[in-house]
Write the C-alpha coordinates for this entry.
Amino acid sequence: MATAGNSGAGDKVSSRDRASAKDALPTRQPSRWKRNLVLLVLLALCGWLAVAWKGLREEAQVGAAYGARVGCVCRFVSGRELDACEGDLKSAPLSGIAGMVSLTQDPATRTVTGSVPMLASRSADFREGRGCQLEPWRD
Protein backbone atom coordinates (compact mmCIF):
# COMPACT_ATOMS: atom_id res chain seq x y z
CA MET A 1 0.00 0.00 0.00
CA ALA A 2 1.11 3.47 -0.72
CA THR A 3 1.63 5.87 2.11
CA ALA A 4 0.90 9.58 2.04
CA GLY A 5 4.36 10.72 0.96
CA ASN A 6 5.20 7.86 -1.36
CA SER A 7 3.52 6.98 -4.62
CA GLY A 8 3.14 3.42 -5.69
CA ALA A 9 2.90 1.82 -9.11
CA GLY A 10 -0.87 1.93 -9.14
CA ASP A 11 -1.26 5.59 -8.08
CA LYS A 12 -2.75 8.06 -10.51
CA VAL A 13 -0.70 11.05 -11.63
CA SER A 14 -2.41 14.42 -11.67
CA SER A 15 -2.48 16.64 -14.73
CA ARG A 16 -0.31 19.17 -12.91
CA ASP A 17 2.36 16.50 -12.38
CA ARG A 18 2.19 15.56 -16.07
CA ALA A 19 2.74 19.19 -17.13
CA SER A 20 5.79 19.50 -14.90
CA ALA A 21 7.07 16.17 -16.25
CA LYS A 22 6.80 17.49 -19.81
CA ASP A 23 8.80 20.56 -18.84
CA ALA A 24 11.47 18.33 -17.34
CA LEU A 25 11.92 16.32 -20.56
CA PRO A 26 14.88 17.37 -22.72
CA THR A 27 13.99 19.44 -25.74
CA ARG A 28 14.12 17.74 -29.10
CA GLN A 29 17.26 18.43 -31.08
CA PRO A 30 16.84 20.02 -34.49
CA SER A 31 16.80 17.77 -37.50
CA ARG A 32 20.22 16.82 -38.84
CA TRP A 33 19.10 16.36 -42.44
CA LYS A 34 21.05 19.41 -43.66
CA ARG A 35 24.28 18.10 -42.17
CA ASN A 36 23.64 14.65 -43.58
CA LEU A 37 22.86 16.11 -47.00
CA VAL A 38 26.12 18.09 -47.01
CA LEU A 39 28.06 14.97 -45.99
CA LEU A 40 26.36 12.96 -48.73
CA VAL A 41 27.20 15.60 -51.36
CA LEU A 42 30.84 15.72 -50.20
CA LEU A 43 31.06 11.94 -50.31
CA ALA A 44 29.61 11.89 -53.84
CA LEU A 45 32.05 14.62 -54.92
CA CYS A 46 35.01 12.67 -53.52
CA GLY A 47 33.81 9.54 -55.31
CA TRP A 48 33.44 11.39 -58.61
CA LEU A 49 36.88 12.97 -58.20
CA ALA A 50 38.46 9.57 -57.52
CA VAL A 51 36.94 8.17 -60.71
CA ALA A 52 37.62 11.21 -62.89
CA TRP A 53 41.09 12.11 -61.52
CA LYS A 54 43.08 10.38 -64.28
CA GLY A 55 41.09 12.07 -67.03
CA LEU A 56 41.35 15.49 -65.37
CA ARG A 57 45.09 15.09 -64.94
CA GLU A 58 45.61 14.01 -68.55
CA GLU A 59 43.55 16.93 -69.84
CA ALA A 60 45.55 19.30 -67.63
CA GLN A 61 48.86 17.88 -68.93
CA VAL A 62 47.77 18.34 -72.54
CA GLY A 63 46.60 21.90 -71.83
CA ALA A 64 49.81 22.77 -69.98
CA ALA A 65 51.94 21.36 -72.81
CA TYR A 66 49.92 23.23 -75.43
CA GLY A 67 50.21 26.44 -73.44
CA ALA A 68 53.97 26.05 -72.94
CA ARG A 69 54.58 25.41 -76.64
CA VAL A 70 52.36 28.24 -77.88
CA GLY A 71 53.76 30.60 -75.22
CA CYS A 72 57.34 29.75 -76.17
CA VAL A 73 56.74 30.39 -79.87
CA CYS A 74 54.85 33.60 -79.12
CA ARG A 75 57.52 34.90 -76.73
CA PHE A 76 60.82 33.82 -78.26
CA VAL A 77 60.05 33.35 -81.97
CA SER A 78 57.60 36.23 -82.42
CA GLY A 79 59.24 38.42 -79.78
CA ARG A 80 55.96 39.40 -78.05
CA GLU A 81 55.41 39.99 -74.36
CA LEU A 82 54.20 37.04 -72.27
CA ASP A 83 50.99 38.90 -71.27
CA ALA A 84 50.02 39.13 -74.95
CA CYS A 85 50.78 35.42 -75.35
CA GLU A 86 48.52 34.57 -72.41
CA GLY A 87 45.77 36.60 -74.07
CA ASP A 88 46.18 34.49 -77.22
CA LEU A 89 46.07 31.34 -75.12
CA LYS A 90 42.85 32.41 -73.40
CA SER A 91 41.16 32.82 -76.78
CA ALA A 92 42.25 29.32 -77.90
CA PRO A 93 39.53 26.67 -78.01
CA LEU A 94 40.68 24.88 -74.85
CA SER A 95 37.86 23.44 -72.81
CA GLY A 96 37.46 22.51 -69.17
CA ILE A 97 40.57 22.20 -67.04
CA ALA A 98 42.91 22.95 -69.95
CA GLY A 99 41.41 26.46 -70.14
CA MET A 100 42.97 27.26 -66.74
CA VAL A 101 46.55 27.29 -68.04
CA SER A 102 48.85 30.05 -66.80
CA LEU A 103 52.26 30.89 -68.27
CA THR A 104 55.58 31.85 -66.69
CA GLN A 105 58.92 32.47 -68.35
CA ASP A 106 62.60 32.19 -67.54
CA PRO A 107 64.44 34.56 -69.90
CA ALA A 108 67.87 33.24 -68.85
CA THR A 109 67.15 29.74 -70.15
CA ARG A 110 64.57 30.92 -72.71
CA THR A 111 61.93 28.63 -71.25
CA VAL A 112 58.16 29.06 -70.94
CA THR A 113 56.23 26.93 -68.46
CA GLY A 114 52.52 26.28 -68.74
CA SER A 115 50.78 25.08 -65.61
CA VAL A 116 47.35 24.13 -64.35
CA PRO A 117 47.19 24.62 -60.57
CA MET A 118 47.71 21.39 -58.57
CA LEU A 119 47.40 19.17 -61.67
CA ALA A 120 50.10 19.66 -64.29
CA SER A 121 53.10 21.69 -65.35
CA ARG A 122 54.97 21.46 -68.68
CA SER A 123 57.88 23.48 -70.08
CA ALA A 124 59.08 24.33 -73.56
CA ASP A 125 62.48 25.82 -74.29
CA PHE A 126 63.73 27.76 -77.30
CA ARG A 127 66.82 26.45 -79.10
CA GLU A 128 68.42 28.43 -81.89
CA GLY A 129 67.94 26.67 -85.21
CA ARG A 130 65.36 24.25 -83.77
CA GLY A 131 62.68 26.53 -82.36
CA CYS A 132 60.59 25.67 -79.32
CA GLN A 133 60.55 22.12 -78.05
CA LEU A 134 58.69 20.58 -75.15
CA GLU A 135 60.77 18.97 -72.48
CA PRO A 136 60.35 15.16 -72.44
CA TRP A 137 57.33 13.73 -70.62
CA ARG A 138 57.91 12.58 -67.08
CA ASP A 139 55.32 10.93 -64.90
